[in-house]
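Input structure tokens:
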């Protein structure tokens, strides 16, 4: 579908197209496959009362984070990382950096 894992269209809709088989873990097993999975991302304007895409650092969300962390402490052989796992917004390069840090630490 695409020649790269992410295609940024900037002034068009959708604004992103992601083809998952181009990521290294997927490309090792699916590079010869004629099948593919793509994700299209469309912008949506946030309005009051609508759920935010990423947690806002306020009392409500910090309490939710503490509950998730308590549950996560009981888990073994599992990584809670990235934007959702750390319950905070990261630019993509920071999310990838966090993943590499987890791997380097042997987590």
């Amino acid at each position: 579908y695409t020649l790269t894992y992410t295609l940024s269209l900037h002034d068009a809709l959708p604004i992103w197209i992601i083809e998952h088989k181009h990521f290294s873990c997927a490309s090792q097993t699916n590079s010869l496959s004629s099948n593919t999975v793509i994700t299209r991302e469309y912008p949506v304007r946030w309005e009051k009362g609508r759920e935010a895409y990423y947690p806002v650092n306020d009392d409500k969300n910090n309490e939710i984070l503490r509950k998730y962390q308590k549950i996560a402490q009981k888990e073994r052989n599992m990584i809670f990382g990235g934007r959702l796992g750390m319950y905070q917004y990261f630019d993509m390069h920071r999310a990838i950096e966090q993943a590499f840090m987890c791997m380097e630490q042997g987590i």
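Residues 59-73 form the longest helix (15 residues). The mean pLDDT is 76.
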